[in-house]
């Protein structure tokens, strides 16, 4: 029997394989993916969805099939994030909730910047009235993609390359919900956490990962019926 898709807490067992996540970190994931592609294995559909979501706009024409599927993936995964807030409405509705994309390797001002997470957050903001998209964090310079082998997974280096903007305050508790596409080591989350809490030590941080990367022997197949 396959599992129903749901947001799942990153528990101590998973954290033990994510060197940069601490016991205190409140993080959740939705999909399970592995290093195999879309054609085989129990996580093939999750793999393909994440692949589509991460298509580099510099590699394809704007109206090409890959960009179409990227757009569809953005919408589908935005629906996943909306489901998290719908489930947490009783807890979070009266708070200041800011949905903050974890920065990519490239600054927003750079040519070819991939706005996939920003686009996702804007869709969530339109669908959940009490959640605000906030592009709080950005990178100073392009340091390369970690998953492509050219970038860094060192939280110290990542934090040094980040800038943090302003978080509005209206009197109630402020929640910063950091969202990223894949949880691998937790380095980018750890860097963002450090930068945000250094400037705003009073905020409450949550991490939402659209997927968690696992070894082939980990995880179980998921039930996709009725979702996409």
Structure explained in plain terms:
The protein is an alpha/beta fold and 228 residues long. The protein has seven helices and ten strands. The chain has helices spanning 12-15, 44-53, 65-87, 89-92, 116-127, 155-160, 187-199, and strands at 3-4, 8-9, 27-33, 96-101, 131-133, 137-139, 162-164, 174-183, 204-213, 222-223. Strands 2-3-9-8-4-5 form a six-stranded mixed beta sheet, with helices on both faces. Strand 8 (174-183), helix 7 and strand 9 form a beta-alpha-beta unit. Helix 2 crosses helix 3 (65-87) and helix 3 packs across helix 5. The chain is globular, with a radius of gyration of 17 Å. 34% of the residues are buried. Residues 216-228 have low confidence and may be disordered.
Layout of SSEs?
Elements: E1 3-4, E2 8-9, H1 12-15, E3 27-33, H2 44-53, H3 65-87, H4 89-92, E4 96-101, H5 116-127, E5 131-133, E6 137-139, H6 155-160, E7 162-164, E8 174-183, H7 187-199, E9 204-213, E10 222-223
Parallel strand pairs: 1-10, 3-9, 4-5, 4-8, 8-9
Antiparallel strand pairs: 2-3, 6-7
What is the beta-strand fraction? 15-25%
Q: Summarize the helix and strand pattern as letters.
A: EEHEHHHEHEEHEEHEE
Give the overall shape, derived from the CA principal axes.
Answer: globular
Number of strands: 10
Structural class: alpha/beta
N-C termini distance = 19 Å
User: Considering DSSP H and I runs of 4 or more, what fraction of the residues is helical?
Assistant: 25-40%
Runs in which pLDDT lies below 50 for 5 or more consecutive residues are 216-228
Q: Give a quick account of the main beta sheet: strands, pairing sense, barrel closure.
A: 6 strands, mixed
Mean pLDDT: 88
Order of strands, main sheet, comes to 2-3-9-8-4-5
Radius of gyration: 17 Å
Treating each run of at least 4 consecutive H or I residues as one helix, how many helices? 7
């Amino acid at each position: 029997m396959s599992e129903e898709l749901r947001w799942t807490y990153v528990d101590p067992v998973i954290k033990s394989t994510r060197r940069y996540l601490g016991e205190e970190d409140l993080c959740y994931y939705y999909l399970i993916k592995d290093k195999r592609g879309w054609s085989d294995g129990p996580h093939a559909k999750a793999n393909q969805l994440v692949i589509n979501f991460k298509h580099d706009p510099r590699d394809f024409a704007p109206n090409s099939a890959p960009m179409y599927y990227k757009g569809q993936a953005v919408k589908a995964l935005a629906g996943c994030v909306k489901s998290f807030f719908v489930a947490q409405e009783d807890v979070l509705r009266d708070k200041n909730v800011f949905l903050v994309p974890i920065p990519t390797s490239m600054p927003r001002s750079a040519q070819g910047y991939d706005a996939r997470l920003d686009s996702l957050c804007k869709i969530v903001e339109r669908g959940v009235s009490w959640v605000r998209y906030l592009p709080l964090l950005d990178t100073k310079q392009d340091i390369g993609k970690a998953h492509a082998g050219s970038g860094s997974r060192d939280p110290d280096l990542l934090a040094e390359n980040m800038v943090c903007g302003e978080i509005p305050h209206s009197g109630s508790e402020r929640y910063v919900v950091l969202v990223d596409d894949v949880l691998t080591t937790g380095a980018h989350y750890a860097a963002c956490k450090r930068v945000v809490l250094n400037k705003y030590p009073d905020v409450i941080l949550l991490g939402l990962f659209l997927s968690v990367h696992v070894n082939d022997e980990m995880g179980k197949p998921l039930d996709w019926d009725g979702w996409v």
